[in-house]
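pinging the channel bc i need a second pair of eyes. not urgent but kinda urgent?? the chain im working w is below, pasted from the shared doc
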Amino acid sequence: MATTRDHTAEHDRWRQARNNRESFNALYSEYAPSMHRAAWQVTHNEETAWDIVQQAFLKAIQSEAGYGGRGSIKGWLIRIARNTALDQWRQRKRRDEQPLGDQERADDQGPEYALIADEGLRRVARAMEHLSADEREMIRLHVQEDLTYQEMADILGRKTGAIRVAIHRIRKKLAAGLEEEHA
Protein backbone atom coordinates (compact mmCIF):
# COMPACT_ATOMS: atom_id res chain seq x y z
CA MET A 1 0.00 0.00 0.00
CA ALA A 2 1.31 3.45 -0.91
CA THR A 3 2.30 5.81 1.85
CA THR A 4 1.88 9.57 2.09
CA ARG A 5 5.54 9.88 1.16
CA ASP A 6 4.95 7.79 -1.99
CA HIS A 7 2.04 10.05 -2.95
CA THR A 8 4.15 13.16 -2.36
CA ALA A 9 6.80 11.75 -4.68
CA GLU A 10 4.10 10.96 -7.26
CA HIS A 11 2.71 14.48 -6.93
CA ASP A 12 6.17 15.92 -7.58
CA ARG A 13 6.58 13.58 -10.53
CA TRP A 14 3.23 14.71 -11.98
CA ARG A 15 4.12 18.39 -11.58
CA GLN A 16 7.40 17.78 -13.38
CA ALA A 17 5.64 15.91 -16.20
CA ARG A 18 3.28 18.84 -16.76
CA ASN A 19 6.28 21.05 -17.53
CA ASN A 20 8.80 18.68 -19.06
CA ARG A 21 8.25 16.69 -22.27
CA GLU A 22 10.69 13.95 -21.33
CA SER A 23 9.05 13.43 -17.94
CA PHE A 24 5.62 13.44 -19.57
CA ASN A 25 6.73 10.85 -22.14
CA ALA A 26 7.99 8.61 -19.33
CA LEU A 27 4.63 8.85 -17.50
CA TYR A 28 2.75 8.27 -20.74
CA SER A 29 4.77 5.14 -21.52
CA GLU A 30 4.22 3.83 -18.02
CA TYR A 31 0.48 4.46 -17.67
CA ALA A 32 -1.00 4.51 -21.19
CA PRO A 33 -1.33 0.70 -21.45
CA SER A 34 -3.36 0.56 -18.20
CA MET A 35 -5.50 3.46 -19.34
CA HIS A 36 -6.02 1.74 -22.69
CA ARG A 37 -7.25 -1.43 -21.01
CA ALA A 38 -9.73 0.61 -18.93
CA ALA A 39 -11.01 2.40 -22.05
CA TRP A 40 -11.18 -0.85 -24.02
CA GLN A 41 -13.38 -2.38 -21.32
CA VAL A 42 -15.99 0.23 -22.23
CA THR A 43 -15.43 0.62 -25.99
CA HIS A 44 -14.33 -2.85 -27.12
CA ASN A 45 -12.49 -1.03 -29.87
CA GLU A 46 -8.70 -0.68 -30.02
CA GLU A 47 -8.52 2.60 -31.95
CA THR A 48 -11.27 4.27 -29.95
CA ALA A 49 -9.59 3.18 -26.71
CA TRP A 50 -6.26 4.72 -27.81
CA ASP A 51 -8.09 7.93 -28.79
CA ILE A 52 -9.61 8.00 -25.32
CA VAL A 53 -6.15 7.58 -23.74
CA GLN A 54 -5.01 10.68 -25.67
CA GLN A 55 -8.08 12.63 -24.56
CA ALA A 56 -7.66 11.50 -20.96
CA PHE A 57 -4.01 12.60 -20.84
CA LEU A 58 -4.99 15.93 -22.35
CA LYS A 59 -7.73 16.36 -19.72
CA ALA A 60 -5.26 15.44 -16.97
CA ILE A 61 -2.62 17.91 -18.17
CA GLN A 62 -5.17 20.72 -18.64
CA SER A 63 -6.87 20.10 -15.31
CA GLU A 64 -6.47 23.07 -12.99
CA ALA A 65 -6.83 20.95 -9.87
CA GLY A 66 -4.89 18.13 -11.47
CA TYR A 67 -3.47 15.28 -9.54
CA GLY A 68 -3.77 16.36 -5.93
CA GLY A 69 -1.47 13.75 -4.44
CA ARG A 70 -4.37 11.69 -3.09
CA GLY A 71 -4.01 8.11 -4.22
CA SER A 72 -1.76 7.01 -7.03
CA ILE A 73 -1.22 8.74 -10.36
CA LYS A 74 -2.05 5.43 -12.02
CA GLY A 75 -5.43 5.19 -10.33
CA TRP A 76 -6.21 8.82 -11.09
CA LEU A 77 -5.31 8.45 -14.79
CA ILE A 78 -7.26 5.18 -15.13
CA ARG A 79 -10.29 6.91 -13.59
CA ILE A 80 -10.01 9.76 -16.12
CA ALA A 81 -9.72 7.29 -19.02
CA ARG A 82 -12.64 5.21 -17.79
CA ASN A 83 -14.84 8.25 -17.22
CA THR A 84 -13.93 9.66 -20.66
CA ALA A 85 -14.87 6.35 -22.29
CA LEU A 86 -18.14 6.20 -20.35
CA ASP A 87 -18.95 9.81 -21.30
CA GLN A 88 -18.42 9.00 -24.99
CA TRP A 89 -20.53 5.87 -24.71
CA ARG A 90 -23.36 7.80 -23.05
CA GLN A 91 -23.21 10.53 -25.71
CA ARG A 92 -23.46 7.99 -28.51
CA LYS A 93 -26.25 6.16 -26.74
CA ARG A 94 -28.22 9.42 -26.34
CA ARG A 95 -27.82 10.09 -30.07
CA ASP A 96 -29.19 6.57 -30.71
CA GLU A 97 -26.00 5.51 -32.43
CA GLN A 98 -24.55 2.07 -32.20
CA PRO A 99 -22.55 1.78 -28.95
CA LEU A 100 -18.79 2.04 -29.27
CA GLY A 101 -17.15 -0.99 -30.78
CA ASP A 102 -20.23 -3.22 -31.17
CA GLN A 103 -19.54 -3.76 -34.84
CA GLU A 104 -16.10 -5.14 -34.09
CA ARG A 105 -16.83 -7.02 -30.87
CA ALA A 106 -17.14 -10.38 -32.63
CA ASP A 107 -13.95 -9.84 -34.69
CA ASP A 108 -11.75 -8.36 -31.98
CA GLN A 109 -11.81 -10.09 -28.63
CA GLY A 110 -9.36 -7.57 -27.18
CA PRO A 111 -6.09 -7.62 -25.30
CA GLU A 112 -7.11 -10.15 -22.65
CA TYR A 113 -7.74 -12.88 -25.21
CA ALA A 114 -4.35 -12.34 -26.85
CA LEU A 115 -2.75 -13.37 -23.55
CA ILE A 116 -4.68 -16.61 -23.20
CA ALA A 117 -2.15 -19.24 -24.18
CA ASP A 118 -2.85 -22.34 -22.11
CA GLU A 119 -5.86 -24.31 -20.97
CA GLY A 120 -5.80 -22.98 -17.41
CA LEU A 121 -6.12 -19.40 -18.62
CA ARG A 122 -8.80 -20.40 -21.11
CA ARG A 123 -10.78 -21.99 -18.25
CA VAL A 124 -10.49 -18.79 -16.24
CA ALA A 125 -11.56 -16.76 -19.28
CA ARG A 126 -14.61 -18.99 -19.74
CA ALA A 127 -15.48 -18.58 -16.06
CA MET A 128 -15.09 -14.81 -16.38
CA GLU A 129 -17.64 -14.78 -19.22
CA HIS A 130 -20.25 -15.51 -16.54
CA LEU A 131 -19.33 -12.34 -14.65
CA SER A 132 -21.01 -9.02 -15.30
CA ALA A 133 -19.03 -6.27 -17.03
CA ASP A 134 -18.61 -4.51 -13.65
CA GLU A 135 -17.32 -7.68 -12.02
CA ARG A 136 -14.84 -8.28 -14.86
CA GLU A 137 -13.62 -4.71 -14.57
CA MET A 138 -13.10 -5.02 -10.81
CA ILE A 139 -11.10 -8.22 -11.19
CA ARG A 140 -9.05 -6.67 -14.01
CA LEU A 141 -8.25 -3.59 -11.94
CA HIS A 142 -7.33 -5.71 -8.93
CA VAL A 143 -5.35 -8.47 -10.63
CA GLN A 144 -4.05 -7.05 -13.90
CA GLU A 145 -3.49 -3.46 -12.80
CA ASP A 146 -2.52 -4.47 -9.25
CA LEU A 147 -4.56 -1.65 -7.72
CA THR A 148 -5.39 -1.48 -4.04
CA TYR A 149 -8.98 -1.58 -2.82
CA GLN A 150 -8.74 2.15 -2.09
CA GLU A 151 -7.51 2.94 -5.62
CA MET A 152 -10.29 0.81 -7.07
CA ALA A 153 -12.84 2.58 -4.88
CA ASP A 154 -11.56 5.95 -6.13
CA ILE A 155 -11.77 4.85 -9.78
CA LEU A 156 -15.18 3.23 -9.50
CA GLY A 157 -16.70 5.80 -7.15
CA ARG A 158 -17.51 3.26 -4.45
CA LYS A 159 -16.55 2.71 -0.84
CA THR A 160 -13.48 0.65 -0.04
CA GLY A 161 -15.47 -1.84 2.04
CA ALA A 162 -17.90 -2.39 -0.84
CA ILE A 163 -14.96 -3.13 -3.14
CA ARG A 164 -13.51 -5.66 -0.67
CA VAL A 165 -16.85 -7.46 -0.40
CA ALA A 166 -17.37 -7.40 -4.18
CA ILE A 167 -13.89 -8.84 -4.86
CA HIS A 168 -14.51 -11.59 -2.29
CA ARG A 169 -17.84 -12.50 -3.91
CA ILE A 170 -16.36 -12.38 -7.42
CA ARG A 171 -13.54 -14.72 -6.38
CA LYS A 172 -16.09 -17.16 -4.91
CA LYS A 173 -18.13 -16.94 -8.11
CA LEU A 174 -15.05 -17.64 -10.24
CA ALA A 175 -14.00 -20.55 -8.03
CA ALA A 176 -17.47 -22.08 -8.29
CA GLY A 177 -17.40 -21.63 -12.07
CA LEU A 178 -14.00 -23.30 -12.32
CA GLU A 179 -15.12 -26.22 -10.11
CA GLU A 180 -18.27 -26.62 -12.17
CA GLU A 181 -16.30 -26.72 -15.42
CA HIS A 182 -13.77 -29.17 -13.99
CA ALA A 183 -16.48 -31.58 -12.78
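so Confidence is low (pLDDT under 50) at residues 97-108, 113-117. and Residues 31 and 74 are 6 Å apart (CA to CA). — does that match what u expected or am i reading it wrong
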